[in-house]
């Protein structure tokens, strides 16, 4: 494939061609149509960028995928390890290698605008850039771009009309003195316009663009994605629906100041702008991360149902392992089938991670039907999964003890538990960010010289992306300006221990930030735990828990029992009582 | 006094006159000569700014001093509470009130340059500013400015010659493309030039300025402060000594770019510059906070001696309270007398805080001979004190249980202990700042809805200021760019609980940052506790401590006993054994 591409590049006088893992909207997960990087490189991971030169090819990916990429990449592609000594970044590589008379090309619709502008700023001469799709001519049987029917998301689930969301955004635009606001990110669009769809697996968004002015708003969708119900409802909200690609024409006519998040828009669209750009995060990022009362109420319900499914799974797993044939994949499928029985379930919120034994040491391991480890009645099974329900999105990880574990495994399980509980049970003064609190969950591991080398938690959307910002728990802010934790923010709390070649342990609850007492010191905040599934008591070394930690664990388990037991069979209930017992 | 000043202002056609609490070097503590704000306002606190208008007078001070200032201020001065709703800041007040034709005046040598520049940027018209000393004409018997003999600080204590320190500073100047570097802050000067003196009580610095060029360096000192020994040693280091006030003339001749920390230089000096200013922190701030091996070795020794003095004090206090007459002042004096018996002791490192019962709820309470509470054999005595030794500076707080205390007092004492130990015993990956770790010591209090409303700890100088930056533990960075904790940084760890009208508890250890293990996760860091005095076991509710906390406490007490007991009498030793027993 690479050779054919190089041949075509030669014909077109192109010296460098980039194939990123992006769709036209810079989504984290992309549809089949956009999997060109996988098609050309053979590498199946979720993140990576392929660079093809006339004689060589390189693939950049991050630490999660070094082992997998090395296995999967075809021989003519060199693996470039991101954030690793001895490997330049793609930006560095390009800025150091492209000569003044050479041409860099890519499909401008899947190329991140910020990346190109950064590259231009690093090179002292004007770059020859060409937006050209060399993918389609070479990719036989390229799947069509998804064009599923969108649907209106019911107000009983989201609680706030589009016109009110638009008002808030326009207020922000006013403050920033912007006449228009261009949006390409699909979760922002889905949230603002209260629409959902099926264009990306596990993420119920609709391929669309949006343009908001002070007195009008346009939503650009594929013709077959909407119908009269949608257009008439949106009209009531002051929104006009237009054709998907019309946005490229409309932005050319913009003048004055336009608010655009250049890191969330493609290069072709951004370079169509002929006006002043105010490059800031989309205001909807800050609005949608604060869930309103209706969203919170619904999310709590979604978590109860999700808790029932995962608790039933845990019961089945722990009672049947070693007795019936189980492997990583069929257990994951069984879990999905239990979720599917729950009211208002749509689909998983991401591809389930079901990792047995040493496989779980790879943080983002995904078994395949061909390579699924069988489960035995010993060691740990790590299951990270979630559901998209009409009433909310869930994300939960439990590590299950399948039988005998060593003392050191028990110790490590308990350290992870302590970390998770320390964050979950903190009461803190308003104004703290997720960066300030991160050390609470990390300290038990750090004190043993262990680290989990990733953030502790991320925001979760509401019937949207399972990863959403800007709220997060991590030791260093990615943006340099972390946000204070606010009432209504939902963030995961998922510390872990990953020992290569041995095992992996992760425990994950979702935490809703809420007001606690207010006194002379100020407004205290605390977390309500939304996730309702037992933490496997078989993994816990009780002697390692402090009085306060035991209290927190027992309180949690008591709530889990009270909340989940009404939905269980008699046998499951008796079992749950044992697995939520006071210790 | 205010009336006389207003009369003089009228004569000179001055509408606003500011009297800050600063010396010519913006020091935290100032000599008697510079206590004009105290003289004119009656308020004796360590921080505050007096503003006199033709008809009114206002004093700004911070939360530590609201109660005291209200008591002490003369009737014609209005108290302006800093960071309190309803009170503008001094900057706001001035920028909102000064009219275009009015004149603002102050003694330019004691006025912070940054403050004046900020004020100028807030006002839309050019300000009429006059540097004039109205203090001296009105202050009868104003004490003379201190001019104590400086001394060369021996290399066996500081470990690094001036010429090497100058090299490091010049490297930094090169990076910043600066031709010269002007320094007015006394601790930076004392550190760079390895001189010390007695011009400020408790802070062994010398009144001086410095000017560093790439190929020369000048130290400006009062004529009677130095002698031939000093000039000849400094000459060897490439430094020329000049007269104290010559700096004002010399800076006028500077050209090119000059590195000056405008927040640490007075307005008269800053406004004498006729060249480009690079306004950044003095590089010596970042250099001196990392103690070298010689300084660390010496500081450990100083802490052992200090620990012996405070442990002997604790023995005496706990064995004699209720039997002999004690009050806040005479106990503090007794403690100083015990320190004075230690080798290489010079003076206290700050005025001892000895606060009994409800007095300790005021974080910076200072008893006076006239108002010293007598001690009874019940409740808490909080003693925050430290020493300047030739081999280092110490700062320690212990809260002692003098007899009966309530369960809730015991609980609060234990919470403070847990907070202190949580920070002291953390192992963390290199790169973390004191902001990232602050929550560790605060969490036990926060979880009970209590906060101590100040930082958790500050850097400590080496035979220098007891408060030094930039390392610190606090929930929010003051500068916006906190520094990573590095090997050799010494920071206090001093959480507390302060209940107005009831009692105050603070425990303070000094922590030396050091390397811990290095493994696949990176370089771990941890703290070595330098402070060597028992934590009063009579205040501890053992049931509240986790296994790890008990372990940390027992380990600490074991080290205290091993380190301190050789220097005690037989009786003291037996007592110490009991008070460092394993729990």
Give the helix proportion of chain A (percent range). Answer: 25-40%
Radius of gyration of chain A, taken over Cα atoms and rounded to an integer in Å = 25 Å
Q: Residue ranges of chain A: pLDDT <50 for 5 or more in a row?
A: none
- Average pLDDT confidence of chain A is 96
Oligomer, anyone?
homodimer
Mass-distribution shape of chain A: globular
What pair of chains forms the biggest interface? A-B, 37 and 37 residues
Structural class of chain A: alpha+beta
**Contiguous helical run count of chain A:** 19
Q: What proportion of the residues of chain A form beta strands (DSSP E)? A: 15-25%
What is the first-to-last residue Cα distance of chain A?
Answer: 60 Å
How is the main sheet of chain A built? Answer: 6 strands, mixed
* Strand order in the sheet with the most strands of chain A: 4-3-2-1-5-6
Count the beta strands of chain A: 28
